[in-house]
Protein 1
Amino acid sequence: MSAMTARLVQAAIDAAKTAYAPYSNFHVGAALLLDNGEIVTGSNFENASYGMTLCAETVAIAKANSDGQLRAIREIAVAGGLAGHVGTGADPITPCGRCRQIIKEVADLTQSDIPVHCAYATGYATYRLSELLPHGFGPASLK
């Protein structure tokens, strides 16, 4: 486990503590590692109209974008679980399908197969986006 990846995963766990999840009580945090070593975080933000809920990964990516750092994203960490138990599950929490698609947009923009570190009780599992979203729909699909 590299020190930087451990720091990124911990940032995702910490971000989950700020989640607004009164309906599901399932808190998710995401942390992005930028090319300059900076970490950008996000947490899920639920809405009574469930379809309007914002996932942690989407919040973090939108935040990086609004700071002009979309092209600087190099790695992503995700942690989730019931309030007070984030990152303690037996299995890694992976991004939902919608978030995988949002990450695909970043991967295509940066021309990289972004590593996604997914927290669980004994550490984290790392997947490349291509493993999480094989045959993903991206800008090239529009041609």
Note: The mean pLDDT is 95.
Protein 2
Amino acid sequence: MSADPLAVLRALQFADSGFPSGVFAFSWGLEGALAEGRADPHGLRDWVRAELHGRWFRAERIAFAGGFRLRGAALRGWFAEVDTLMPVERARQDSVQAGAALFASARALRIALDPGAVAAEADGTGHFAVVHGHLLAVAGLDLPSALAASGFGMARGAYSVAVRLGAVGAIAMQRDLAALAPEIAELVQVPEPDALPAGFAPLSDIALMRPRAGRLFVN
């Protein structure tokens, strides 16, 4: 983690499940997959691992890192580029919606974001992963620490969905997160590819597009 204690404290604040980041309302397809038996609650670690490798590592990590590094017009352009690369319209809309909540929280806390990020919000391209990367950069984290917070947050978010749905218990969640932590740390250390975000998570993509009555989450 960053040697700056204040940066660590701010990262803990942003990563806290009580922080109004917007993602609390999203299951990213897991609710539907559990309801239809396409995700096994007793093998949820396999689902999360597939999401980490297929969605986070290949797409969100790259989008996040761009948000962390870029400023000004380059940052605004990166938001727009990430927007054009979202293959599923529902996922694109949800990502912008979650990003809007993160923008609102930053504004309420009087955290000054780069004008390029503010312009992207006005453009309707304020995707969550890019906003999150920018916010953690403003908080003072180094990139590896910020990426670790992002990857672990994705995994914890999925388990939080399963716990709230009654599919797994809190102890099982913590046991699996402890088992996944070394794998997340390894993914963080892999050199960033010279490539655009290109995730591949067909099970969750299909699940989040399927309508379901009485759902608890947005998707």
Note: The CA atoms of residues 1 and 125 lie 30 Å apart.
Protein 3
Amino acid sequence: MTLQEKLDAFKGDFEAGKPPYNVPYSVIETMHRATAELIASGAAGRALKAGDKMPAFTLNDPDGKPVSSRDLLAHGPLVVSFYRGVWCPYCNMELQALQEALPAFEKLGASLIAISPQTSVNSRKSVRQNELSFPILSDEHNDVAAAFGLRFAMPDYLVDLYKELKNDLPSFNGDDSWTLPMPGRFVIGQDGVILYAEVNPDYTRRPEPAGMLPALRHAARATA
């Protein structure tokens, strides 16, 4: 089963109100409205694209150790995935798919990181629950996400829904801004130029990890 097939199966059960979520359809309608408005805003089209230069960053890993993009690129190409948080089942399924693809990335000399606005405590939980061998870096206030063009402010009605559902993003993120990154995935060459970019304002849609392999092979040939 592909990643998207798994996501579609989960979405079907969730939107049908099946256990354990048992959500009323009014909740689904609100989520659909927010996604449709984000798509219509054109925000995804303003995110960084292939050919753009990646903004350099230094972020802490789950253990509080600073990780620099420059240091990562010194060792080879870099795969970056922006992750909404431990509370998002779609994101967790994506992390698991990336973990499965990690050996293929490493064979081409690449490193893999995820970037999330959540606190290090929640990143450690994500790593543990999803059995990851790559780090989730903490992006306070979604500042790196903003530099990539991914940060967006949640509309008030969606904030109200999250509060009603006890999905406390200020607690998850240590930040009361109620912003999130659009799901985004990037392959960056050692020169810092983006070779592959996939951004989707619909958080239920994620590309297959194997789709990055051509860009990684190109990067590997460029450094051979």
Note: The longest strand covers residues 111-116.
